[in-house]
Write a structure and sequence with these properties.
The protein has about 475 residues and is α/β, with parallel strands linked by helices. About 30% of the residues lie in helices and about 30% in strands. The protein contains 16 helices and 27 strands. It has an eleven-stranded mixed β-sheet, sandwiched between helices. A six-stranded antiparallel β-sheet has the order 4-3-2-7-6-5, with no helix packed on it. It has a four-stranded parallel β-sheet with strand order 25-24-26-27, with helices on both faces.
């Protein structure tokens, strides 16, 4: 990967005793932030943690020296260095005086999106998720360059804090041919988003840090006009966006629906359930948990629906290897685990499979910068740029029982499966099931299910009541059969 950071321009702003220490620092190319707080020692932050640069405390004169060398701070207390990607943020006291500065190192890293190049070529809207500092802005900047230069699309950036294209009137070369629209005030970002579509005829709109309801509505409006969106939002997981009432509109929005008695029995759920209420503004979601490991949701609508109804979820992980290759893993497990699953354990195959031995794991090494991926619930085929099939590195296929539940609360069954670590997967499709577990009083009046089970030779287990003991006994009989 080629990295351009213009670090010298940032160091020139700092007091000499800080600059000298950083110039000689052995790990300065990994520097993330420099923190200067009044009355405290200067601190630098690296991916593996912070460290102090000096035994001297920051004084008023040190802060004033820096402030005089940078442009005025905007309404969101941010500034920058012209024609660079660095961001400088201030902390002020009650009187409006600057008492702290944070220097965020901005880098253009070329080649970071090689693992998702196949997704960019689909033309789908992409939402990047992750905590602050994990690399979302760096990634979206490289996506912008690829879309504008390599794919020759008309790209417009809505640059609220000048982080994507840098400070000043001339955009940084890292964005390629893309055009940049600056935002006067952060609260006006949604208006500039609509203005970009109406006035400049873009094919792609780039938005950093979607955080308000108005911005989410504007994103949906843009998507409905046929413009591709690439945006970022704070949230570690897709599940956290679903639970966020402000941002849930990005993935289709959530609403309560009341089912009829027969439908509730058929689903084995309560009468009031959550459902997605519209088509998502973003069709693809990418969770960036660290700079080298990403989790991909290629069909956001399907994933959200499965999360809400408690079905099996398929997750795809892509990881940069030290040798330049890309590892792709596909794993599926019950959505009840989504609230607590850890990305590191997901990318560590053995850890996840020990907790849930139910589905498929396929690892594939790709030694090319352009891949085309076709992904379904139980299979993952990866083709290289010249359409030759890449060698499968490892395939683990755990045979498991596929169960259809009728008249029984699915969450109760999932809880039993999880507690006893049973190799059982729940399905909403009767034709995919090996067994049916039903409440006797419910299924005896349903001729259609009994006929379907008979024609497909699906064995039906019935229980008198949906107690945990009855469910455990029936599930164990299925596994032992």
């Amino acid at each position: 990967m080629l990295i351009a950071d213009d670090l010298d321009k940032l160091l020139d702003i700092l007091p000499e005793f800080i600059k000298d220490s950083l110039v000689k620092h052995s790990r300065k190319k990994f520097l993330i932030e420099i923190v200067m707080d009044l009355g405290r020692r200067p601190e630098v932050r690296f991916p593996d943690g912070p460290e102090y640069l000096s035994t001297s405390n920051i004084s008023w004169s040190d802060l004033d020296l820096c402030i005089k060398k940078i442009p005025h701070f905007s309404g969101d207390n941010r500034s920058g260095i012209e024609y660079t990607l660095h961001r400088i943020s201030s902390i002020k006291n009650r009187k409006g005086n600057v008492v702290g500065l944070t220097f965020r190192v901005g880098r253009a890293i070329f080649g970071t999106v090689s693992s998702i190049r196949d997704i960019l070529y689909t033309g789908k809207s992409i939402l990047l998720l992750g905590k602050p500092g994990v690399g979302k802005t760096t990634t979206i900047r490289e996506i912008t360059r690829v879309l504008a230069d390599e794919m020759e699309k008309r790209v417009v950036i809505i640059d609220t804090s000048n982080e994507i294209a840098g400070d000043g009137d001339i955009p940084h070369p890292a964005i390629g041919r893309a055009r940049r629209m600056q935002v006067e005030k952060p609260e006006l970002q949604h208006q500039v988003m609509i203005e970009a579509v109406e006035n400049h005829m873009p094919e792609v709109i780039i938005i950093d840090e979607i955080g308000t309801e108005l911005e989410a509505i504007a994103a949906r409006t843009i998507a409905e006009r046929g413009v591709q969106l690439v945006g970022t939002a704070h949230g570690n997981y897709l599940y956290s966006i679903i639970k966020n009432p402000t941002l849930s509109d990005l993935i289709g929005g959530i609403q309560y629906v009341t089912l009829g008695d027969d439908e509730a029995k058929r689903r084995g759920s309560q009468k009031s359930i959550l459902e997605r209420k519209a088509i998502p503004a973003f069709q693809v979601a990418i969770e960036i948990h660290n700079r080298n490991s990403w989790i991909i949701h290629e069909n956001v609508d399907l994933t959200v629906d499965k999360i809400l109804d408690g079905s099996v979820i398929s997750l795809q992980g892509r990881k940069f290897n030290s040798d330049g290759s890309i590892s792709i893993s596909c794993e599926s497990f019950s959505s009840i685990q989504l609230n607590s699953y850890n990305s590191n354990s997901f990318l560590n195959t053995s850890s996840l499979l020990s907790n849930n031995s139910s589905i498929l794991n396929k690892k594939i090494l790709v030694n090319t910068h352009q891949v085309s991926t076709k992904h379904s619930l139980y299979s993952l085929n990866v083709l290289s740029n010249n359409i030759r099939q890449v060698k499968t590195h490892q395939l683990i296929n755990s045979k498991c029982t596929v169960l259809y539940a009728y008249g029984i609360n699915i969450q109760q069954i999932e809880s039993v499966i999880k507690s006893f670590q049973l190799s059982i997967v729940l399905t909403r499709d009767l034709l995919k099931a090996n067994y049916i577990l039903a409440l006797r009083s419910s299924i005896k009046h349903n001729v259609k299910i009994r006929q379907s089970a008979k024609s497909k030779q699906i064995l039906i287990y019935t229980i008198h009541s949906s107690t945990s003991n009855n469910i455990i006994r029936a599930l164990k009989q299925m596994i032992c059969k």
